[in-house]
Amino acid sequence: MIVANGEYDNAGLQRLGSPAADADALAGVLADRAISDFDVSVVRNETAHVVQAEIEDLCAEGGPDDVLLLHFSCHGLKDDSGGLYFAARNTRPDRLRSTAVPAQFVQQCIRQSRSRSIVLLLDCCYGGAFGQGVAVRASGDANVLDSFRGGRGRAVITASNSIEYAFEGARLASDEPARPSVFTSALVEGLRTGEADRDEDGWIALGELYEYLFDRVRERNPKQTPSRDIEMQGELYLAKSRRRRIKPSPIPPDLAAAIGAENPFTRLGAVAELRRRLSSSNLPVAMGAFEALKTMSSTDIEHVAAAASDALSFAVVRVDTPSVRLSAAADSRASGSLRVLGPPVAREVRFEASHSWIVVTEVAGGAELSVTAGDAGVRRGKVVVSGPTGEVVVAVEIEALPVAEPEAVVAEAEPEPAAPEPVAPEPAASEAVVSEPAVSEPAVSEAVAEPVASKLAASEAVVAEPATSEPATSELAAPESATAPEPAVGAVPEPAAAAPGSVVAEQTRRLATDSEPEPVVAAEAQPAAAAPVPVARPATEPAGAMDPVGGFAGVVAIAGAVFAVAGLPLKYRYGYSLTQYRPGMESAVLIVAACALLAGILTLTPRTRSWTGPALLFGTGLAALFGLLRFLGEAIALSQNGDTELKTGYTFALLAHIAWLVAGASALAALRRSPAVALGAGRVRGWPAWVAIGLGVAAATGWIVQLVDLNTYDSSDAGRATAYFLLGALLAVIVPVVAMTLRPSPVGCAVLATGTAGLLGVLAPTFAAVAEESSLALGGQLIAVVALVLLAADTAVLAVRARNQPNGRQS
């Protein structure tokens, strides 16, 4: 039975991350019938009375020949009189007798059991881990073993022998997927690999297991000292081992006589027979032949020794590849395989990885490798393949592939209009190309409209689409005429060409404030340059037919927001919601959900669906990358233990972020299809755009600085918080760079607005990651906060500049 309590209702007991991982890892290895014959049950995060009932059932139902194993992973607490208690979900530090599991109760159950072999494993933080306001009474020694003395046929092994903590693989109140504690991880490793079988007889005895645990725990953490109290007659074997040593069979007398013969040719014949025996599936026979050949290769004459050495090379440990080179995304896994070659005795091997990020699973004929990439660069390690006939080292490398940045959108080149045939200028009328609908202002005379219409038909000039839904004049190009022409309606004249209050001046003012033109080739080749025909970018979009891609993006974005909000109160992992299990992440999710809801509505609204809604939605998709990668990373990390325990709340959050990413990609496609937007990518222009990129880099630098400070203060906390700081830093660089290279400028401003909102949401989980480290400097966090606040202000400046952009210029 595995009792794992890491979640506590009382605020005075900090949450433990390791018990859940301890339970998963130990249950997995004990349930493996190739290792043990235990029937495993797990009691996870239950109240004291439930735990007591399960313990009593275990001890009462055990028969005389049953081996009972009871593993505790929780807080270990002591009362004022020195009594030891195991913390349960409902434990109160000031009411231990009624809310915790007394060690005396466990002792009584053990004594009353009929089983003659009971093993108690205690992986506890003796002395407790209390929050503020609760005193810790530490006498220097918890005297844990004294609580279980007396009685035959029972053994107690503890993770530590005094007030010291039983250190976790992930520290208290972890914000990252927990790993098993130092003690339990060594226990699992010793059973799984068989390394605890020190005499290599194929069985792991209790004494061998303790010696292995002592060495491994002290090696990993010198401040933690396992202890034991074993009162058993004879040896108790807990598990089977694959490290069984092969005992060589003696050489038959006739073959032994040939090996010692004076005639070297007789000895060469003996070498041939030994080589044949070396291929036998009877491993003791093969090992006897191997030992005899090894002696002959070192003591016989040159020719016989060479033949013996050649026979030995046939049976040495060999694999199909000298190295395994893999690649995967950062913090992701890649798989490889090793196949062992040679006769049966050469394939009787075991595998040992040099690093924890290399997981080796033995299979028939070899092993499967599961290798985790680092944050960046190349990880290098090795797998040692050893057997009775030798060993070989296989190099293992895995390269972390960079995260693909969103591709910059390149504007589709519009074909240049064909140059019209020259037309003789009218002596008394200006030559202009008028766009539909026709100007209805009373100040425009019919005498001007008629020749304009005739020239439109004759020259086949480009007809511009109406810029707004109002009956306003569009942009017109006015080529030079033989006489001094009057300004063309809607064209951008020289400052002195339009009288104040005239129709031309009014149209010039509208174009200067409502559009960002792109110059095109003039309609007629004249000695003087003709006025350019601008590509209009409307300030208020027309209510045309809805683009199905944009409509799909809006619906998916709104659906993602609904999923996110609905999933927040649901259980995320075990019995806890996202807010309780991952503090701060709920703020990031809610901010992106709000942006997605707003952008989705604007994408479906007629007056804003051409570019405002899709642009905001594309920025929301960029902001959602943080949560998507964070949630996917958690599922991958937890799946390594075989039981993720992720609930409906996690599923809702993951689906929401996938929906937002799909909506963002669809919004980008809708922008490219929109006739109101000439979307393209270009170089960064204007100091506010460079300031935005610089502030994004500053925010990323701040988060990296904070991560370095946290790693200096506590490397295990830094390891769990790496995902928050690195993903936030990556997003802080990507968002402004992508936004500031988009054209026209208002589209980039909209993308930057929702992207910056998502970056502000990242601040909550990064602060939560360091909230409990009161002595940690927060200089990096301050840099990130100031940079993001200034980035939000700079976004507003960019929006104002884009709105007031004069005609003929772009920033």
TrEMBL record:
<dbReference type="GO" id="GO:0004197">
    <property type="term" value="F:cysteine-type endopeptidase activity"/>
</dbReference>
<feature type="transmembrane region" description="Helical">
    <location>
        <begin position="650"/>
        <end position="672"/>
    </location>
</feature>
<protein>
    <submittedName>
        <fullName>Caspase-related protein</fullName>
    </submittedName>
</protein>
<keyword id="KW-1133">Transmembrane helix</keyword>
<dbReference type="GO" id="GO:0006508">
    <property type="term" value="P:proteolysis"/>
</dbReference>
<feature type="transmembrane region" description="Helical">
    <location>
        <begin position="588"/>
        <end position="604"/>
    </location>
</feature>
<feature type="domain" description="Peptidase C14 caspase">
    <location>
        <begin position="1"/>
        <end position="229"/>
    </location>
</feature>
<feature type="transmembrane region" description="Helical">
    <location>
        <begin position="724"/>
        <end position="742"/>
    </location>
</feature>
<dbReference type="InterPro" id="IPR018247">
    <property type="entry name" value="EF_Hand_1_Ca_BS"/>
</dbReference>
<dbReference type="InterPro" id="IPR011600">
    <property type="entry name" value="Pept_C14_caspase"/>
</dbReference>
<feature type="compositionally biased region" description="Low complexity">
    <location>
        <begin position="469"/>
        <end position="506"/>
    </location>
</feature>
<feature type="transmembrane region" description="Helical">
    <location>
        <begin position="616"/>
        <end position="638"/>
    </location>
</feature>
<feature type="transmembrane region" description="Helical">
    <location>
        <begin position="549"/>
        <end position="568"/>
    </location>
</feature>
<feature type="transmembrane region" description="Helical">
    <location>
        <begin position="684"/>
        <end position="704"/>
    </location>
</feature>
<feature type="transmembrane region" description="Helical">
    <location>
        <begin position="776"/>
        <end position="800"/>
    </location>
</feature>
<feature type="transmembrane region" description="Helical">
    <location>
        <begin position="749"/>
        <end position="770"/>
    </location>
</feature>
<dbReference type="Pfam" id="PF00656">
    <property type="entry name" value="Peptidase_C14"/>
</dbReference>
<dbReference type="InterPro" id="IPR029030">
    <property type="entry name" value="Caspase-like_dom_sf"/>
</dbReference>
<keyword id="KW-0812">Transmembrane</keyword>
<dbReference type="InterPro" id="IPR052039">
    <property type="entry name" value="Caspase-related_regulators"/>
</dbReference>
<feature type="region of interest" description="Disordered">
    <location>
        <begin position="464"/>
        <end position="517"/>
    </location>
</feature>
<keyword id="KW-0472">Membrane</keyword>
<feature type="compositionally biased region" description="Low complexity">
    <location>
        <begin position="426"/>
        <end position="437"/>
    </location>
</feature>
<feature type="region of interest" description="Disordered">
    <location>
        <begin position="409"/>
        <end position="437"/>
    </location>
</feature>
